[in-house]
Every structure is written in structure tokens, then in C-alpha cells.
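Why does residue order matter? Because the sequence determines the fold. Keep that principle in mind as you read this record.
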Amino acid sequence: MTGSEATWIALMVAIYASTHSTVWMSAALFVTIAGQGVATPLLGGLGDRMDRRKLMIGSELSAAVVCAAMTFTHTPLALVVLALLASVAQSPFIAASTAAVPNLIGSEGLSWANSQLAIGRNAGALLGPLVGGVMSGLIDPYVVFGANAVCFTASAALIWTVHGTFADPERSRLDEEQHEGLRAGFVFIWGDTVLRLMTLAWVVLLFLLGPVLVAELPLAHSFGAGSAGYGVLVACWGGGAIVGSFFGRRLAAFHERATMVIGAALIGAGFATVALAPMFGFALAGMAGAGAAEGAVSVAEQGILQRRTPDAVRSRATAASEAAVMCAFALSFPSAGFLIDLLGVRGVYMMGAVGCGLSALILVYSMRALGASREVAAAV
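Structure:
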């Protein structure tokens, strides 16, 4: 995550330096995120058919090769194409790793395990923008691409050292027959009211949130903070998310519902703070608060998804949910430049806050369904 987040910053800096265009930045984000959204259900489902550990290693090494190629590429179009390939290479990783966790740790330790993983991801989200912003500003963004190739290789080596059960050896042939084909993940998500509404909530949120990513660099420039300030702004999200992930470690199953709803609302409050910030410090505080809420929400969300999906279809269900969310996120970027021109950089942060509010309303109904299903299970 450190290398990937640093590369996002470096990619935005390199493209903005070459084009001075938010349209190009929007295009880069759209192509890479949409590509990952399309590739995820196709390649993410491999985690239900292949050795998840080997699949994760292959994903990391493939991404390392692409990032190495980016160090020798100096045109915006070529950078966007290679960034797309890197996103596709990474697409099996999240689904396979999420599906493996219940097998490695057991259902009773899911909140703790998901918190541990979230802390690792969010530590990378904190360090990566700082490293990317500073290296891009003081040295060169292309150095960051090479460093990320090293990070992916190191990640693959670390995964190789993990020993345990990555898939349920006891899953039945009946489970596998009930969930055949690439579309099985979408069918499962659609058929489960809790997961369907939860996915819809994130689709709504991210569809209105995408322009915020494009607005981050112009916002930092508007405060006179430059590319280093851009890195700090994004890092505040990561720092807050680490705090939220620690909170998530202590989540019991009965706290997950409140965490999901309140957390989505608090993310919106953080973005509203950024939109109204009179100085850069307030904007940083707003991002940190939003990140903290997202860190807790992500732990709760992962636990709910993992508990409600059988191992035979867990990779494909995770991939289906990710694909829906990533495609919605990607579709928000083509209009990002126009919206920034229309609403201003602060206006798109307020639009993101509205998206979070709508998401929280949808999650109210999703969590009610979750509570009802647990009451039925307890009665049985």
C-alpha cells in the first residue's frame, strides 16, 4: 500500500506537470479504476478456483513488472496505459486475500484480523502519500514508480512466508455446484438483502466522491501548499484511518451495524469540514476525521461480508462487490474536471459529503435487515 499510494501521488504529479489539466487527471483515474472494476470480477474469481496464496504472489509480481516499465515512460498516454495494466494485475489480490482471512484466523477472530489488515493498509495510505509527495517534489515522480516495483516484489516475498489454510478444505461439493461460474458472486450479492443494500450504499457514495480525488491537488495549491501539501492532505486520511482501524479491532458483531451507519455520516462530516475550511489546518483535520470513520467502517464491512458468504463463493462475491463499487467510482471521473470548474474544489468536497449522507440512509435499511437476520438465526 505504501508503494501504491506513493505511485498514485506520483502519477497525478507527473500528469499534471505535463498537461496542467484536471481533465487528464480525471482520465487517468477513470481508466485505471474502471479497468480494475472490469478486471476484478473476471480475475478476482480465480481465488475460488486456484491456490489463493500463489494467486496473490503472482498478482504482486505482475504489478512489479508493470511499475518497473513506468520508470522509462514519459508521455501522459503511455503512463495512463501502464497504470491501467498495473491496476489489472492487482485485481485478483483483494478478493483472494479477503476470502482467505476466515480460513486463516477463524470466524471468532475476524474483527481482530480485519483490524490488523486495515492497520497495515492504512499505514501504507499514510506513508505512501508522504513519500510520493516529497519524492515527486524533491527528486522526480519516476523514481517513485521504480520504488513501487521494489515494494511489490517485497510484498510477494512476505506473502510467500505465510503458512496456513487459505481455503476451506471441508467445503462441500454441493456448495461448489450451487455457486458455479463467474456470475455466481453477483448472484449471491444480489440475492442477499444486507449485502445488496450495503453495496448500493458504497456505489452511491463513491459515485459522488470521485471528483474529490481530482480536487485534492488543486485544493493543496489553493492553500499554497504545493505537491508536498497534497501528499500531507492525502496522508491525513491514512493517519485517521489507522486510528479508526484500531477502534475496529474491538468491534463485536453487535457493534457493526451502528459503526456502518454512524461511520458513513462521519465521513461526510469530515468532507464538509474540508469544504468550509478557512485554512489548510482545518482541511487536514477534516481529512483525518473522515479517514478515522472510514477505518472503522472498513473493518465492520469486511466482517459482515466474510460472515455472510460461504468459502466456495467468497472470492467471487468480494470481487462482485468490489467491481460494482469500482465501476461507480470510475464513472464519477469523466465529469470531475467539469464539476470542479462548475462548483470549485470546495464544492466537490461538499458534494462528497452529500454522497456520504445518502449512503448512511441506505445503510440504515441494510443494517436493519442484518439485525433481523441475526434475530431469526438466534431464534433458530
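Residues 99 and 314 are 5 Å apart (CA to CA).
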